[in-house]
Design brief:
Elements lengths: L6 H7 L6 H10 L15 H11 L2 E6 L2 E7 L1 H10 L6 E2 L3 H7 L9 H17 L7 H17 L9 H17 L8 H17 L2 H8 L11 H25 L8 H12 L9 H15 L1 H16 L1 H14 L15 H14 L8 E2 L4 E3 L2 E3 L4 E5 L1 H4 L42 H18 E5 L11 E3 L2 E3 L5 E5 L1
Parallel strand pairs: 2-7
Antiparallel strand pairs: 1-2, 3-4, 4-7, 5-6, 8-11, 9-10
Organism: Sus scrofa (Pig)
Subcellular location: Endoplasmic reticulum membrane; Microsome membrane
Membrane topology: Peripheral membrane protein
Amino acid sequence: MQMWYAFFPLSINFTCLLPAKIQEEIDCVIGRHRSPCTQDKSHMPYTDAVLSKVYGPVFTVYLGLKPAVVLHGYEAMKEALIDGGEEFSGRGHLPMAERVNKGHGIIFSSGKRWKEIRRFSLMTLRNFGMGKRSIEERVQEEARCLVEELRKTNASPCDPTFLLGCAPCNVICSIIFRNRFDYTDPNFLTLLEKLNENFRILSSPWIQVCNNFPALIDYLPGSHNKVFKNSAYVKSYILEKVKEHQASLDVNDPRDFIDCFLIKMEQEKHNHQVAFTFENLIATISDLFGAGTETTSTTLRYGLLLLLKHPDVTAKVQKEIDSVIERHRSPCMQDRSRMPYTDAVVHEIQRYIDLIPISVPHAVTRDIKFRNYLIPKGMTVLTSLTSVLHDDQEFPNPEVFDPGHFLDESGNFKESDYFMPFSTGKRICVGEGLARMELFLFLTSILQKFTLEPVVDLKDINTTPVYSGFSHVPRSYQLRFIPV
């Protein structure tokens, strides 16, 4: 395994030694006046591809002064995360996250505590409702509310960012707190503001500096302090809701995720376990909001931009909607199996935008031998989702938006093992099922009720992402929602 990031300081200063394309990416992404960081890697696909061909699918980078292993390509990721899932199921060292969550929650925890919380959360999200309102019904309700809010734009040019942020956040609120909020509710708007601001800050190079050099966290001013302040607000808000639930809890009639967790706490209180505590409840809810709001919102926003850019694709989706759902009932998940083209479009949106190019760092849980390399316990492992989602053997012309990547010759939907926008293995996103449901129901509901009309010429619609730390986000844009 080679020491990858040592390449960059030399490359910035000795331009004559580099291929022009690599130097162009360095100039565009890093510039000449700051040091490279691992977040730059996801925005430099050509450089990443060249280095992976030189060094192979397993190589080493330096994050600050600490080495980390990079896995590149489907075979290496499958071998590590699926075949060797347990050994690679730890969470990489992230000082900022550790400072906020202190090892609690579902995203940044490890070991037995993580396994217990993950198992409980998956079961609760899967079985929630128990004969009452299912999660699908909650998403359908939110889709109807979103459509009505879009109708209020009166076909005027609008930036969809705010409304597309409210909808997935409200779905999480409905699951966690039992009730959704009006889009003008001040408490809801403040919560959404704190979550969005944290997402933006955590995507910044400064947070990468804090993670790589954690000693700076306590001694320097900076936006990381805003993350701590916002996180404290969110936790305080959640704690208030938890106390309200405690006062009205009926163990025989759980209303939402909080009730289910409180009941589990009571059941486990004599077992001396470390998972079902107030600290873990609050951290887990914070994680569900953090992971389930901005990511789905950004995917929806990017999806509408791609549909604007490709009106032929949009027309085919709407034709399928008219044939299967028609205009007067709400879309449901049972419709998806009869809508192969729409299903392919939703998958292609996620593949094409490559929302999280490098997944949240893993760590190996013991000393292991992997492809003849010895990887010590606790070593951080980075997985390049881009290298799989944009594999040119599985997806010919991967830089082109083409729903045909997920259709066979007969027009039937075609699954792909390479489709892993939610990562894969034991650390796959716990909200994958919910996110897929939201994307299908929100997009079909919008296209059922509206024609999307751009406010600029098609040639001027730019679908290349804005560089935003660990995620790809679309450029700001406006469109008109024309009722049909």
